[in-house]
Design a protein that fits this description.
There is one protein chain. Helices cover 19% and strands 30% of the residues. The chain contains nine helices and 38 strands. The chain has a 16-stranded parallel beta sheet that branches. A seven-stranded mixed beta sheet has the order 5-4-1-6-10-7-11. The protein binds uridine-diphosphate-N-acetylglucosamine (UD1) and calcium ion.
Length: 463
Amino acid sequence: MKKYAIVLAAGKGTRMKTEMPKCAYPLLKKPMIAYIVENLKMSSMIDEIIVVVGHKKEVLKDILNSSVLYADQDQQLGTGHAVMVTEPLIDDLDGDVMILPGDMPLVDKCLIEKAFNEHISRRHDLTVVTTKVEDPHGYGRILRDEQGYLDEIVEEREASSSQKLIDEINTGLYIVKTKTLFDSLKKVTNNNQKNEYYLTDIIKISKNDNRVIGTYSLKESYKAMGVNDLYMLSQAEQILQTNINKQHMKNGVAMINPETITIGHNVVIEENVIIHPNTYITGNSIIKKGAQIGPNTEIHESYIGERVVCKHSLVYNSTVHEDTTVGPFAHLRDGANIGPKNRVGNFVEIKKSSTGTNTKMSHLAYIGDTTCGSNVNFGCGAVTVNYDGKNKYRTEIGDDVFIGCNVNLIAPIKVEDNSTIAAGSTLTTNVPKGALAIARAYQVNKENYIKNKPKTEDKKNNE
Ligand code: UD1
Ligand code: CA
């Protein structure tokens, strides 16, 4: 018997009041929908994931690619209708389906597994995951009969004032036998305030059809948060951030002012790392033992080696090997690959370039499209001139090269091992092994110049 998951993500997200489809909104730089799909994949239960897309579907398809199946809901006629459009993709009529709203980013693997197991072990035809919240506004309320059994769900718009006081809400997460699901969906109408096909109507319908229905009560109600507007998005992000930081600190990562530190869901940080305030580490970044990151640093999709110190800097899609120092105010990007024991100092930008061991660019340098060896010293203001306004060219620098201050290396160019480049040189041709390259005008001293120069006072008198 197959286990399916259907994620509802076709809605526009009108309450977000913005253009982007709601389920594509990022938390800690990762789209909401990606959390849900990732947790479904991590749980050992689900055989097939179907995502219902509609409004700006290409944005969601770009995020999830071929990791899931898609059902198109071209007109958003309600959550019940969204599930109806998945019917052709469900081939096992004896299977079970978990339905999740795509705006529930805090749902985790543990909740998915527990709720599904409960549904199976209690032999329910339909299980609704419910929780109690302080402020139930906006959620569907759970109505129970006199014996306390689930009766139906009433939406905020349709609820009477006494029903609105009920603090047990519908999380939007359900597990249903496929047959029960599609049989009852056929009976759902859009006879309500929004003229939508409400998925929540299947509860009453299944009950009337004598199906076995029940609830699974979630204790940690925050996991059920449905993000409907940008304020709720920021609240969900804060919860996620607090939980992630707590876990890292328990694993031996020191954080100074953790409320100012943002660590993405997929970041790996080893023990003995210190993270200073106002630091963002996101994407699939890895921070190795003994590193010190921040303050005021952004690291995205990057590898930071053991004992690296990185302050006041930006590191995107790059690798920094062990014992290197980065910053203050350095910018590494687009596949920069910095070797061990390097020094990348103040106002240095490195793009699509690699360096060997013990290379130093301590101040004010731009290194782009460059392959550089070991023990190279870039003087202050050294620049690889990689762009002629049309095309980009590469610079190759060997080992043990000394590059003076304010040198321009006009690419394509090759600077061989052990060479030296005089300060202020603008090089357009290769430098052979062991050579000294000087490419600047000779100095001319005009003797006695000051004698013939009019004095400031004389100038004033003439005016
Ligand atoms: C829904 C539930 C409510 C529950 C709440 C939990 C219904 C009628 N109500 O309300 O009981 O407490 O979730 O968060 O189901 N969607 C589609 N196609 C549509 C409409 C919606 O794919 O035609 C998707 C949306 O993109 C969204 C999800 O379904 O991801 C939920 O829709 P939303 O409008 O946010 O439902 P709520 O009003 O929050
Ligand atoms: Ca919602």
